[in-house]
Amino acid sequence: MALVTTIHGFDKVMTNLNAEIQMMTNRSMGGLIQGAQLVFRDTEKTPPLTPVDFGNMRASRFIVTAKTIPRGRSARFKDDITGQLSVDHFSTISEAQSMVAQMSNIYGKFLILGYSAHYTLFVHENLGASSEERYRYGPGPGKKRLYKPRAGAGPKWFEASFKRNSGNIVALVRNNARIKK
Q: How many CB atoms lie within 10 A of CB 115?
């Protein structure tokens, strides 16, 4: 003869457990966003720093999730090329948000961070960049001016920040995803 046991309140336990798992999932996205913000803050404090001329590249930073734009919804660009930078910024964010939505369906929690300024890749990878003052043209036709590179700035600043902070990013996600009592 089989012994039948009834567990009272099991449905409530499962409901609470599922709710906590959902909250952990939501908090893990918060940890990812904090990690992305940490990377951007670090590029301003630890060499190599983000190179700055007018500040347009720095203004083009963004973080995009499937549901929100925690950073970069509106950018304040300067000088003659603000119109094109603004158009590029909004189209980049729109495209990134579309990509994040698709990737989130495949991989779960997902975000994209980066820069929308079209010249960022060139500046990031320009290993031969000089740190000396020099005259240069632009933006705008025939505008020659003295360019003074930012002290401590250099190529690969974004990549270096990720390498320095990978452990901190994992810790942020882990700490945010923990069960809260």
A: 23
